[in-house]
Design a protein that fits this description.
The chain is mostly beta strands. The chain has one domain: Hypothetical protein, similar to alpha- acetolactate decarboxylase, domain 2 (60s Ribosomal Protein L30, Chain: A). The protein is built from 1 helix and 8 strands, in the order ββαββββββ. The structure holds fe (iii) ion. Fe (iii) ion (FE) binds next to β5.
Length: 143
């Protein structure tokens, strides 16, 4: 089963996620296939269902919410690092609704319903992640 197709120019990939695929899973599979350990993600796409996560710094807890409707991934932006030797994605989105208002936040998952066109810049630095007690977040850990 294919999840995506891509081409490469210098250190930058164009990545098309297949229709009905889940974007974060497809990005993980892409990073594993290309062995990308650090990078930058940007793009756009048509999304039929998305789960966003809100981090409450007071309680250090996450609140997740799923939106089931057709939305425009008006801005998809993120980075790639590693955690425990595996690709670690940090992706945020702005999602445009039918009435042209937007919702946005930290993206947990998004099912494509249409096209999803991403650019991935491959970086040659090493960037792990380390859990930070103060914030309760997995922060960048540069060696
Ligand atoms: Fe985030």
């Amino acid at each position: 089963m294919t999840m995506f197709s891509s081409c490469k120019s210098d250190n930058t990939y164009l990545l098309s996620i297949d229709n009905h695929q889940e974007m974060i899973s497809a990005l993980m599979a892409f990073c594993e296939k290309e062995d990308i350990r650090a990078g930058l993600i940007s793009g756009l796409g048509a999304i039929g269902e998305a789960t966003l996560r809100f981090y409450d710094p007071q309680t250090k807890k996450y609140v997740d919410k799923t939106f089931r409707e057709q939305m425009e991934g008006a801005s998809i932006i993120g980075n790639i690092s590693t955690k425990d030797g595996k690709p670690y994605l940090h992706v945020h989105v702005v999602l445009g609704r039918r009435d042209y208002t937007c919702i946005g936040g930290h993206l947990l998952s998004a099912f494509i319903n249409g096209a999803c066109e991403l650019s991935v810049v491959r970086l040659e630095c090493e960037s792990g992640r380390k859990f930070d007690e103060e914030t309760g977040l997995n922060m960048y850990d540069f060696k």
